[in-house]
Amino acid sequence: MKFCKLCNNILHTNIYNEELTFKCISCNKIYKSDNTDTLRYEFSKKSNLGIYERQLKTAQNDPTNMKAFIDCPKCKHYICKQVELDIDLKLFNVCEKCGHIWLYGD
After folding, report:
1. Does residue 88 lie in a domain region?
2. What domain range includes position 104?
3. What is the CATH number of the domain that holds 75?
């Protein structure tokens, strides 16, 4: 979560001209995202996993993502983080131990 530097309210995410920004709805201050943000919008036509590669790479250590008790198909660790991405909100699992990514239900 990000907070406004002026009024300390929670910033809301906004995508404007295909660029992720954060906006305070109290004082209307707008902040640009940087490479350390976990919600980084990137668009690619390679594959579904390539579209949101940066979000999936950081999802493993992001405390705001949901935890699920599902065995990783790669290392068999039983805890993963879940991330909803794409226009139709596909649910991706990211193993907390090895970082393996798989689509929920596969």
Report:
1. yes
2. 61-106
3. 2.20.25.10
User: In whole angstroms, how large is the CA radius of gyration of the chain?
Assistant: 15
Question: Which two structure tokens, joined as six digits, stand for 22?
Answer: 């954060």
Q: Give per-residue pLDDT as tens, 61-86.
A: 888 888 999 999 999 999 999 888 76
With a CB cutoff of 8 Å and minimum separation 6, the contacts of 63 are none
Give the separation between CA 10 and CA 88, rounded to whole angstroms: 26
Of 83, 81, 85, 106, the C-alpha closest to 96 is 81
Is 36 contained in some domain?
no
Whether residue 26 has pLDDT greater than 70 = yes
